[in-house]
Specification:
The protein is α+β, with helices and mostly antiparallel strands. It is built from four helices and 29 strands. The radius of gyration is 41 Å and the shape is globular.
Amino acid sequence: MLRPYPGGEFWISGSDPVVQAVRIRSVERSRGKLVQDVMKSYVVLVAMAVLLTVPGCTGDPTPTTSAPATATPRSTPNAVATATPGPTATATRIPVPEPTATPTPVPGATSVVLTPDADATLYDRGTLQAANGAGESLFFGSTNGSEARRALIRFDVGTAIPAGSTIASARLVMTVDRARGEADESTLYLVTSSWGEGRAESETAGGGSGTTPDDGSATWEHRSFPDVAWEQSGGDYEPEPHAIIVVQPPPRTQTVEVTWGSTGEMVEDVQNWLTSPASNFGWIILGNEGTAQTAKRVPSRENDNSALRPQLIVEYIPATGPQSVDLMPSQDTTIYDDPTLANGAGEWLFVGATRRGALRRALVAFDVASAIPAGATVNGVTLTLTVSQTTAGDEPVALHRVLTHWSAGTADAEFNEGKGGPASADDATWLGTGIDGDQWVTPGGDITSVASASATVGGRDQSFQWTSAEAVADVQGWLDDPSTNHGWLLVGREDSTRTAKRFDSMENISGFPEPRPPILTIRYTP
């Protein structure tokens, strides 16, 4: 039977050998437990004896006479809390600068706000080329999968700032509406090669993945897909940054405005673009590409919310005394003696007759009133065009003032463009102006019978100029009454075959070593 054993255990009574064996083992285990308890008690007693020999631990409130009461320091309850903390494991965030106050206006300066005339995203997607030139957003930084994104942006400063002005400040303002990761640097670089915006529009993942590029789109490998490559993948730009800021990701569903500038480099960039529009390839923005999930999204110039589109805010001091300005065309195109053909968005302009006698003429216009202050006196005019291809020798090309408004349109011919492409409703053709279905009074363009200027045009990769008192009068008239500004028509020799000349157009990005669009140099006194 079971009987209680001292210490709370049980033992078994009985005379059966098996029972006795069990009892013996139970007693042995109980004795072992008792020994362990005795040993524990002994250790406790020894420890207490030691403590009783330590001064201050006897419990006697009377201090010893060998030391004053203040000699024994007492630890305070907050001793641990006041100890110097060591390094923590919390990740360090990049400090975000305080918002920069609006710069004090420069005395005598005029301020203007520009929106981009082109912007696009470059997508580093390996062998898969992607573009998004017509998309609602731009991207820079690195994705979850460590794919880099870079934003291209360009502003036409010459149409908003009078030629000869001195740039006092320049600030690029964007709105970040989506971002990941921590605050990090976003850097602005000067682009050194021309590029095409294209018409590709990504509608997946908010545009973050891009879409198949169309002809003329900028991609990671091409400044104009599919034929014209960057010198270096990811865009051609100067190695030194022109502005650096730290971008703080906004809270979800919110936006944050960010501003680059005004730095000396940015001011110099805008000044150069004003003086020489042909050098204006804009900026490229790079984010943190060394860490995943750093991409920033900003609304592009195509965004539905115009208040969120990028802005270039420029302060300038208008010029005094004689000035000079170089203008790129506001539009240009070729008309073909086949009225179904056009090339308003093409890279080249054609004049003269082909080997089969087909005729070509080039229309070109410049927005003079936007570049020169009203009331200025035009002192000199020079139109410069560069031949990129010809099989003819020296041939005369005349410049005639156009009498009717026209539209360059969107037709974009293939290959070398000499045969033209299908004309759209807004393309000027041999018979139509491209404006509301209007027709030329005279097929081939309504122009003055007397040329404003003439030049002998020779071989390829050479530039040729047209200048005269009549051309000065044309430009002065366009400045005084912009409604009369319909540009010029270039007419080559048409009474023979094989007289055709091909010039670089304003859309050209294939020129060597750089594009050479038509340039109108105007010398004037404000």
